[in-house]
Amino acid sequence: MSLGKPDLYIAGQLMQTAAADPRPALAGLSIGWGNDSRLEMDPPSKLSGQFLIRGAMPAWLEVGAPVGLVDPVSSRCLFAGNLAPLKATPDDSVRGAMRVSFTAASPLAELQKHKAIDVNYDANTAASIRFNTLASELPRGWQLTGSTGGSVAQTKQQYKSIEWLKLAERFCRSYLYRYHDTSYYTPGAGLSKRLTFSPERGKTYPGSVPGPGSRGVWTGTAPAGASGMAVLPTSAVRRGIDWEKSPEDMITDVQIASFNAIETDANRDSTRFEVRMNLTPVFVDNSALQDAYGFRQVEIETSLGGADQAAFGAQLRSVVNYWLDTANKWRPTDLQLPDSRALDTAPLLNLLAVDTRGTAALSVPAATTLAPGLIRSFVMAGRATWTGKKWSTDITLGRTL
Question: Alpha carbon of 400 to those of 5, 33, 95, 150, 377: distances in Å?
Answer without folding.
Answer: 32, 20, 52, 27, 5
